[in-house]
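Quick one before lunch.
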Amino acid sequence: MERKTLIRAAIDALPTAYTPYSHFHVAAALLCKDGTVYTGINIENAAYTPTVCAERSAFFRAVNEGKREFEAIVICGGMNGQVSEYCAPCGVCRQVMREFCDPAAFKIILAKSETEYKEFTLEELLPVSFGPDNLREPDTAEGGCPHADV
Ligand code: THU
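Model of the tetrahydrodeoxyuridine complex:
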């Protein structure tokens, strides 16, 4: 899928952001390896902490639909829905991406417009990370479960 198409999907989703408190709109468009796209917007909450970011909205929609393999995500955002700066994903969203995506291959695209964007790998934005591999049982005979005595 062309970058332009994925960026357009994110920009089109921006007005739906529910941001009565910060007024900072964020939208994401997540491209699955099978070519499907899930958009997400930030959804704020009067109690603040239940707020969910656009990136996690998109991931959770996709994972709920059974998707597990992802290629790229576009993120855009700005005050009152005006995209003037690049909007980078928060640390929690980077960690959610780490759960499902290959850090060296998954692309995070920060977009200002269909033609103005910056592209990173997940590894660039979340170096030396903790992921599913860390919880895998060691397969050596002398290994044993790292949590056996916990
Ligand atoms: N926000 C996102 O949706 N994604 C991010 O990665 C950064 C922050 C949202 C959360 C909140 O609704 C607003 O931006 C201001 O923090």
